[in-house]
Amino acid sequence: MEIIFPAGGPVVDGLAEATASPSSEAAGSAPVTVETSSGTAVEQIALDLEAGKIDRATAVERLLTATVEDPAFASLSPEQRGELRQVLADLIDVDPSLGALVGALGPRTDDR
């Protein structure tokens, strides 16, 4: 799994320093790319969602948890990981493209 932070996008205190690779620092305005190992967690979430074991809201919560708990972010403090989680959750709430992707995940609990 790969997470890309656009240059100039939302920044969690210390996140850029904790995740930036030397090549992205040299590029200046290039996006910061972080390789993650939560692919297995994401695959399980997708399987549970497809099987109807979880709803859309639970899937999003589990995806946020898998993201911030990924070893790629191990250098962040618990407070920074909490702030990262909140920034990502806020982006999901306000970004129409992310909202559409979340909507495509399946019904909310009250849609069933």
Q: How would you briefly describe this protein structure?
A:
54% of the residues lie in helices and 7% in strands. It is mainly alpha-helical and 112 residues long.
Percent of residues in β-strands: 5-15%
Largest β sheet strand count, sense and barrel closure? 2 strands, antiparallel
Query: Could you give the count of β-strands?
Result: 2
Q: What coarse outline follows from CA principal-axis ratios?
A: flat
Distance between the termini: 30 Å
As for the number of domains, it is 1
pLDDT averaged residue by residue: 74
Content-based structural category = mainly alpha
Widest sheet, order of strands: 1-2
Count of runs of 4 or more consecutive helical residues: 6
Low-confidence stretches: 5-29, 31-36
What can you tell me about this protein's structure?
A two-stranded antiparallel ribbon has the order 1-2. The longest helix has 17 residues, at 78-94. The protein has 112 residues and is mainly α. It has one domain. The protein contains 6 helices and 2 strands, in the order E-H-H-E-H-H-H-H.
Name its key features.
6 helices, flat, 7% strand, single chain, 112 residues, two-stranded antiparallel sheet, mainly alpha
Helices and strands in order:
Blueprint: E1 2-5, H1 15-19, H2 22-27, E2 32-35, H3 39-50, H4 56-68, H5 78-94, H6 96-103
Antiparallel strand pairs: 1-2
Helix pairs in contact: 3-4, 4-5, 5-6
